[in-house]
Amino acid sequence: MFLKNIFYHFGRYVMMLGTAISRPEKISMYYKETMRQMNDIGIGSLFIVCLIAVFIGAVTAVQFSYQLDGTLVPVYYIGYVVRDMTIIELAPTFTCLVLAGKVGSNIAAEIGGMRQKEHIDAMEIMGVNTAAYLILPKVIAALIVIPMLVAIGAFVSIIGGYLAAVPTGVMADAEYIKGLRSFFEPFNVNMMFIKAVVFAFILTTVSAYQGYHVRGGSIELGEASTNAVVFSDILILIADYVIAVLLTG
Amino acid sequence: MIRTEDIVKRFGDKEVLKGITTEFYQGQTNLIIGRSGAGKTVLLKMLVGLLEPTEGNVWYDDTNFFTLNKKQKRAIRMQVGMLFQAGALFDSMSVEENIRFPLDMFTNRSYKEKRKRVDYCLERVNLGDVNDRYPSEISGGMQKRVGIARAIVLEPRFLFCDEPNSGLDPKTSIVIDELIQSITKENNITTIINTHDMNSVMEIGENIILLHQGELVWRGNKGQVLESDNEVLQNFIFASPFLQRLRESAVGK
After folding, report:
1. CB-CB: which of B78, B88, B91 is closest to A127?
2. Are B207 and B246 in a shared domain?
3. B56 by DSSP, 3-state: which?
4. Domain holding B31: CATH number?
5. Is residue B88, in this structure, part of any structural domain at all?
6. Is residue B85 helix, strand or coil?
């Protein structure tokens, strides 16, 4: 039964994507909607992403300095660890988990609400490909904006690490900078962007799927919104593991 | 003209429509009436293609709708306008944007031409100065009128109305009915209205079908309603004691 359910939803999800990825009726309308979504997802999430990122960096720096206490490992390693942990793992994964909560639930609620208020039926009758018009701009916007948010998050996180380590006297300014410049592997940045793109796709399409197929009333809409976050988070973590194995194995 | 041919719809084991064969005429206000749960909304959704019949066909003139591919269906839908029960106006758009949406999506007209058409449609439904207001800022009756304006903006050949009078006071209901009927006559379109409003039945019902438990049990026009001895129709139309007394006095019993 469980497997049957998974295949049922996966099949519907793939079919929905098949319908969504098609030639737009009017490019200008899709462009306008994509811009609106980029603003909602990007600008709308900037503050929360920065806030979380600064604390992630700060906590990483504090925790690592605690681990190093009394060891022979050079203190500048704090900068190095903050940088790599942020770029490889924390910035893309944490940012996208947070965005699954903020953006994902919003997408599910918006599309689900439109389904319940017959807005989607109204568009269907007009001849609009609703899967494409309602989902494609969100996916495109997320694929463009979320990697940018992740990059900003990584940068802010490194600054967070600096603020936690340098002004508090854990280490000198020059040491932190030295750590940031040590053992730099440019491929890690590519990995960060690959993760950001994959996670962005997951969180928008899974949330859109939950909203697009909602039935019933407000309780079902709430469930769809919750499912959007839960399933997006689970799939992001699974994808994180798969990408880590594929790209670092 | 729209024609249905032996339409059957089942949801699991439940048969909601049981072989409906009927015609809806051009230039007339065609009414689908019946009690709640009779299958009116399912039939209407099938006519506009939102639901597929389990068996049977829906014909738009000489075209069998459910045998068409997506592109052909879309071409038919471009000729369809629909007024939803709750209006289904897009909350995030102003009144003008709502009405302009089909024009923006499917035409290459200039902004000026679109604006002109929107103004005409608003004027046609007797609304002025609401272009910049949002659906939440106007009354239910106004929302219905905006819904009609949006439905006719692409000059449809077929107009569908799902419970156009629900939630409206009797006076506003009459205004909406008259509006729908005059638009039907003016543009010679096929209008199908799903209703259980008795006033609509008696005022604008040119071709009425009565559904009862998924079956078509009566067909006629407003003039034949009072004379019919169909028990289901009489029970439906004159459900309240007040209306029964009114009928008795009208037919001189």
Report:
1. B78
2. yes
3. strand
4. 3.40.50.300
5. no
6. coil
* Any domain includes B201: yes
How many separate domains does chain B show?
Answer: 2
Residue B87 falls inside a structural domain: no
**Could you say which of B133, B155, B177 is where a domain stops?**
B155
Supply φ then ψ for residue B169, to 5 degrees.
Answer: -75, 160
User: How many angstroms separate the first and last alpha carbons of chain B?
Assistant: 39
B129-159 pLDDT tens trace: 888 999 999 988 889 889 989 999 998 999 9
Q: Which residue has the tokens 């997408």?
A: A107
First to last CA, chain A: 35
Over the stretch A32-63, which tens digit does the pLDDT of each residue have?
A: 999 999 999 999 999 999 999 999 999 999 99
Q: pLDDT tens for residues A28-39?
A: 999 999 999 999
Q: Do B82 and A125 touch (CB under 8 A)?
A: yes
In A, residues 14-53, which contact B (CB 8 Å cutoff)?
25-26, 28-29
Does residue B57 form part of some domain?
yes
Chain B interface disruption, residue of A29, A120, A126, most B CBs within 10 A: A126
Structural domain harbouring B108? 93-155
Which residues, 6+ apart, have CB-to-CB distance to A97 below 8 Å?
A233, A236
Answer yes or no: do B149 and B161 share one domain. Answer: no
